[in-house]
Design goal:
Elements lengths: L2 H16 L1 H10 L1 E4 L7 H23 L6 H10 L4 H28 L8 H23 L4 H10 L1 H4 L5 H9 L6 H33 L5 H4 L7 E4 H26 L22 H16 L2 H20 L12 H26 L3
Antiparallel strand pairs: 1-2
Helix pairs in contact: 3-5, 3-12, 4-5, 5-6, 5-12, 6-10, 13-14, 13-15
């Protein structure tokens, strides 16, 4: 029996049980629109690729990381003692930031292409939930090294939920495991980072990917106005998949360059009794709400400014999430234009407050 016959028999045995031929036929018949804005289709795949890198490097770090009082020492050993530990840790940290950047780009491209309209409302809602979980992934993982920067930055970051009236202090204390950030906080954040969040994120990600396959790629309003005969598309396999994998390869090269040339640093071990170093601030994806709280706190007296900032940012998030139920028109109209301007205002506000936040760091 030749190797070709053996492989055919094995494939037939697996195909009878898993339906590989049906999945291959679906992939061959699935098409992806081709137009001037097709570039934005790749950012969802880039986000997925960087998440896979996170999973792979996270498992490797998990082998040597010890949460609690020995957190800093374990990260120091990973960085300076273990062979290529510095590279794995750097790749994990850089891929986290790149993944969040890719998700933000993907979200805004979906928004401005109106890809949240019927029948893709659940795709938009699940994507927003994934973005929220991704930011919590980043926040919970940032503390785990327990160096000086991560310790004080987490203290600053927890000021945001602590500012919520009535329930805010209780939420912050629950996250910290007490009144102050300590080794108990590390244990809670570690459990959240490696158990709770993946348990919620992975099923939601599967649901989101299933919706993308079910509804296909949306086309922007300018393409919808064209007759069907003038619209172009390419097969998902192998045409679009080949280009998607090429974008993954480019992303891997960018990640490898950043991780090797700009390795993620490890500061000195935290000291709760020492003053916070100059320039402590949240990570870039939390800079906008943090700066809004600070600006309104300066403009309005006392806690009223912080509460107003939280309400303003929360109202903006709620409106952003519910946009599919407002902009339901298929052709250009008043609601469509209002949603477009709302999106532009959100982009400008996020960029402006983030830039002001970094500009005013002392």
């Amino acid at each position: 029996m030749t190797s070709k016959t053996v492989s055919s028999s094995v494939y037939g045995w697996v195909d009878d049980r898993l339906g590989l031929s049906e999945m291959a036929a679906f992939a061959r018949h699935k098409t992806v629109p081709v137009h001037s804005q097709s570039f934005w289709y790749y950012w969802g795949g880039i986000s997925l690729f960087l998440f896979l890198v996170q999973c792979f490097t996270g498992v490797l770090l998990l082998v040597y990381y010890r949460p609690g009082a020995e957190a800093f020492e374990s990260v120091r050993q990973i960085t300076f003692v273990m062979h290529f530990g510095w590279l794995i840790r750097s790749a994990h940290s850089w891929s986290a930031n790149l993944m969040l950047f890719a998700i933000f780009v993907h979200m805004f491209s979906v928004f401005f292409m109106k890809a949240y309209r019927k029948p893709r409302e659940f795709g938009w809602l699940s994507g927003m939930a994934l973005l929220g979980l991704a930011t919590v992934f980043g926040f919970s993982g940032y503390l785990l090294p327990m160096d000086e920067l991560s310790y004080f930055a987490t203290k600053v970051g927890l000021e945001i939920p602590a500012a919520v009236p009535l329930i805010g202090p209780a939420i912050a204390n629950m996250l910290r495991g007490g009144p102050e950030v300590s080794e108990f906080t590390v244990q809670r954040f570690f459990a959240l980072h490696v158990v709770v969040l993946p348990a919620v994120f992975l099923p939601l990600l599967g649901f989101h990917l299933w919706l993308v396959q079910r509804h296909g790629n949306a086309v922007p309003p300018c393409e919808e106005a064209k007759p069907a005969s003038e619209r172009k598309s390419i097969p998902f396999m192998p045409g679009f998949l080949r280009k998607d994998l090429a974008m993954w390869l480019i992303s891997l090269n960018i990640l490898a360059l950043l991780a090797s040339v700009f390795p993620w640093s490890l500061g000195k071990q935290y000291d709760a009794l020492s003053p916070a170093p100059m320039g402590i601030h949240p990570e870039w994806y939390f800079m906008s709400p943090f700066e809004m709280l600070k600006l309104l706190g300066n403009w309005l007296p006392g806690e009223f400014g912080e509460i107003a900032g939280l309400l303003l940012f929360s109202a903006g998030i709620v409106l952003w999430i519910l946009i599919p139920f407002y902009d339901v028109e298929r052709e250009a109209g008043r609601r469509s234009r209002a949603a477009h301007y709302f999106g532009l205002a959100a982009v400008i506000l996020l960029l402006a407050t983030t830039a002001i936040g970094y500009w005013t760091i002392r």
